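Input chain follows. Return structure tokens only.
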Amino acid sequence: MKSSAGDNQEVEVKFLVADLNAVRRRLVTAGAVLGAPRVYERNVRFDTVDERLLARQALLRLRQDSRVRLTYKGLPAQDAASEAKTREEIELTVEEFDRMALIFDRLGFHAVQTYEKYRTTFHLGDVEVVLDEMPFGLFVELEGASDTGLKAAAAALGLDWSRRLLTNYLELMERARRAFDLPFNDLTFANFERRPVDMGVLLPRCALSEDKP
């Protein structure tokens, strides 16, 4: 989801939660519509050998779930008045994952990191709500046109806005790698089955408020 048809901006926040089923029940009660059922997702980040894209906080990614998408994310355009993370995002669908990866390789961009998840997508009004089962924890991500809309959606779901995360999964992976001395860089289920971690040690875990149905 983009904040409008032409500006290629994403505005989003994340929450670390203990129970996605509880969030799913809140979504149903709030009248959310299922956008896409649970699907396995594989993402591969591409960069130069010396990781020039990472150095300027840019991301070049191929994502494969029920389709293949190419994504570029630019330098975060964080507004001091904003309560959410805002950055440029340009995305399009491509036909073949492996052939697109080969083109990147010919251009000097190589696969440097893989990350996986299971994702279920809902729409609550104008806000996209995704339930992410990550190898290192359960997360809810809200994305929409403005932090005001995200804040209202969080309130409707009983999510404590003060415990929102303004970061991406690769940044969280780097924090986990350093904090838990992980010997790998890929955010995959196989890696974390061998080395489970508790992300609640590093991040505020958001419990659903009791006053919501």
